[in-house]
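New to this. Help decode the following:
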Amino acid sequence: MKNNHSLIIGGGIVGATLALKLAQAKRPVTLVDAAPERDEASWQQLLSHRDARVYALSLASINLLKEVGAWQNIQTSGRKADYSQMQVWQLNGLGELLFGDSDTEHPNILGSMVEPLVIEHALWQRLNDSDISDYLTVIKGQKVVDMDWLGAQAGYQVTLENGKRISANLLVGADGRGSFVRRQAGIELDTLDYQQTAICCAIHTAMPHLATARQAMLPTGTLALLPLADITEEDKARPQHWQSVVWTLPRNQALALLEEEPDYIADKLAAASNYELGAIDKIESIASFPLTAQQAKSYIADNLVLIGDAAHGVHPLAGQGLNLGMLDVKELFAQLEYDYQRSGNSLWGSAQTLRTYERLRRPHNSLMMHSFSALNWLFAGSLAQMRPMQQLRSEGMYRVGKIKPLMRLFAKQASGV
């Protein structure tokens, strides 16, 4: 195959978004994804079920999806739940922060909760549009089994499991936390195991969420209650009662709870939230995952760059993992384009370009990772429950909540714009 400007390994949300940005700019790109190709009927079968997981898309991520033409598909589907407020509180009620717009008639949204498959389907629809087909090649259902660096001028040649070889000036690793690209490039990780497990599920509560994302800071960890889109006609007749839960617990406690019946888990969950939205009358799609954070020691190598979870993974405490990956896409594309045009269309993915991307993104992502870790430590664990620490947290939250300009700044940071 002839040499392409860019080869992206990993067709998830971050990888597909970058592929669309490049194709729209008329920069040849090949996207390789190990997941099998699905037709529309297969997508609709998957989408017929409510997913307990949601991504808290910031306004910056929404704007990027609009730019590549995928957000319009999400809007058409109706499978999104905008939120205009964020409520953060301690269980003892001694401290609470409320971000966002309380105008019930015309609220300004902070972001939108969207199920992963809904975003992936919207991107899949866009990847198949004819206006970008001259610049985009999508290969589904194939893993990369080998990578060979051919020198700075030639870039990389990768081999797929079907024996096909693809060459590219720039190789982009967007293949998740266990990134094959990162491992083959010999890039090591800094890792942090929180010794916690997150239980996720979808719940139907007695009281509506009122377009508010909630997060309780508990001694055992965080408990997030995030608005879910209403899917069925029954849901729409009584809207805003479905929510996605991410409940962080010490690992042994979480695993023991997962052995119980769903109704028992629902009762414990309602009690843990101090019945913030009343009783839980339905619970679905109970699952779990261990909580860890990781950061690649380098985001770049010769003719190679990492984005999204391949480069970094953070605690889900603030729901910023995907948003950080989307900011990677925005910055990488901007730097590639800037240096390409500045060089008279001769440099693509040069060492200088990639170093600039890493300098702009790695410190920011690192700060976010360590900030989330510090917040988790501040609220969870034995030291965090000592009376002086509790009083310090409560007083701090009270004081911050009274400073309106600071609250507006926090809300702006959460939106990502």
In short: The radius of gyration is 22 Å. Residues 351-379 form the longest helix (29 residues). The chain has 13 helices and 19 strands.
